[in-house]
Amino acid sequence: MKPNIVLIMVDQMRADCLSIQDHPVVDTPNLDQLARDGVLFQNAYSSTPTCVPARATVLTGMSQTSTGRVGYQDQVPFNYEHTLPGELAQAGYHTQAVGKMHVYPARNLCGFHNVVLHDGYLHYNRNKSCNLESESFNHSGDDYLPWFKQQAGSQADLNDLGLDCNASTVARPWHLSEALHPTNWVVSESIDFLRRRDPSKPFFLKMSFVRPHPPFDPPQVFFDMYKDLDLPDPAIGDWAELEDPEQNGLNPVTLKGNVPRNRFKRAQAAYYALITHIDYQIGRFMQTMAEYGVMNNTVILFVSDHGELLGDHNLFRKALPYEGSANVPFILSDPGNVLKLKKNQSIEEVVELRDIMPTILDAANVEIPRSVDGMSVLPLCTGEKAKWREYIHGEHAYGASSHQFLTNGKEKYIWYSQSGEEQLFNLLKDPSETINLVNNPEYIDRLVFWREILIRELHGREEGYTDGKRLIAGKKAKSTLEHLLVSVKETAYN
Questions:
Q1: What is the pLDDT of residues 146-195, one digit of tens each?
Q2: Is the pTM of this model over 0.85?
Q3: In the record, which residues are listed under signal peptide (predicted)?
Q4: Which single residue of 8, 29, 63, 73 could bond 373 by disulfide (Cβ 3.0 to 4.6 Å)?
Q5: Could you tell me the domains of the chain?
C-alpha cells in the first residue's frame, strides 16, 4: 500500500525559529524530532513570500510566473488543471484539508475530497459593509467560526482581543480555554479525520495552521515561557533606515519603523510562544497517529508559506526578500523509514515551495504532471547523485518596494524594480544580511553575474523590466500576470 502523506503547513514562521537550528530561546521539541527522523533543508525559500501566491505554488508545484501570481491579490479564482490533492485523489488517496487554504472562492476544494476550513480573520471575507445580511455573516463558509461561537457563546468573535489579523507588533494572551484556540481546533479536526478516514485507502492530510501569523495571541502558558526571557535583538543592516520621523513604529500594523521596546518584546515573546504552541499540538497529533497505528507508514512534510521579519532591519511582516521573510522551515520526515532517507541530516541545496508537490507525488509513486516546475527532493535525501538547480528566482509586487531577487543559499541579489536600487549579500559570512556588498569592489564580478541572470529571467516579461541587455527601473509592477487573468476570464465565459 502507498504511504500516507501529512503536509503540515504553518503561516508566517521564520526558518530560524527551531531549537534544532540553535535558536537562542525558541523551543520546538516535536519539530526537532521530525527533523531527526528525516531531513532538514537549510536553504528553503518562498519565492513570492505572502499567503496567496505561496499557497498557489504549494498546490500546483508551479513557479510564481507559471501560476501568474507575482504579488498578493485576493479574489482571483484558483482554476489550475493540476493540483497536489487532485493528483493524489486520482491515484486512489483519500484527501482532506483542515485549516487555512486562502484560495478563491474560499470553499474551492482545489482537488481535495473535503475541506474543513479556517482561513483566519481575512479582511475581504469579513467586510460586513459588503454583506446585506451582516448579522448572519458566515465568514465565507468558515467552519471554525460557528463552532467557536457555539463553544464560547454567540457574542464571541475572533477580534475580541483587540488584535488585527496583521498586527505584527501588538500581542496579548488568548483569553479563553486553550481548547478553543484555532491551533488546537486544527489538530482536533485532523484527529477526527483519522477516525473517519477510509481505511482501505492511503490518505493525504493537509493540516494547515493560521498561526504564528498574527494575531499574536498564544495561550497564557506558552506566553509565560517567553515573556521574561532575554530575547535576541533583531538584525539591523548597515543599509537599514534607523530614523522614523513619521513615527510609523507606533502603528500596530506597521510595516517598518521604531516600535516601542516593551511593545516589541511582548510581540516577540508571543510570536515564539505561538510556534511552541503549534509544536506541542503537533506532538499531540503524532501521539494520536501512533495510537491509530499509522505513524510508521506515513511521510510528513513540514513547511511555512513565508516568514516574518520581526523587526529585522526595522521591518515587519513579510513580502520582502530578506531571510526573515523569504527563508522558511522545510522538513521531510520519515518516521517509519518508508522512503529510506538518510536521516538526521541537513541539506544545503536551495529548495522552494514549488518542490513540495513533486516531492510528495514522488513519495507516493504518482506521475508528476508536466505543468510542475518544481523538483522532487527525494534524490537529495537518499544520497543519490542528483543534478540540482543553481539558484531560485523570487519576486513580489509591493508598491514602491516591488522587487526581484535571486539566491543560491550562499549569496543573494536583490533589485528593487521601482527605484533601481540593488543589494548583494554574502549569506555564508553574513546570514543576517547586515552588509550590502553592492559598492564593494571585491564583489563587482558577483554583482554583474547575478544581474545578468536576472536579465535573462525577466526577458520577455509583460512589465518590461528589461530589454534583454539591462534592467529598466520604474516599470509598473503587477500582482497578477495577464495569462492568469485571461485564463480566469475564459473559464468564467465558458
A1: 999 999 999 998 889 999 888 779 999 999 999 999 999 999 999 999 99
A2: yes
A3: none
A4: 63
A5: 4-389 (3.40.720.10), 398-477 (3.30.1120)
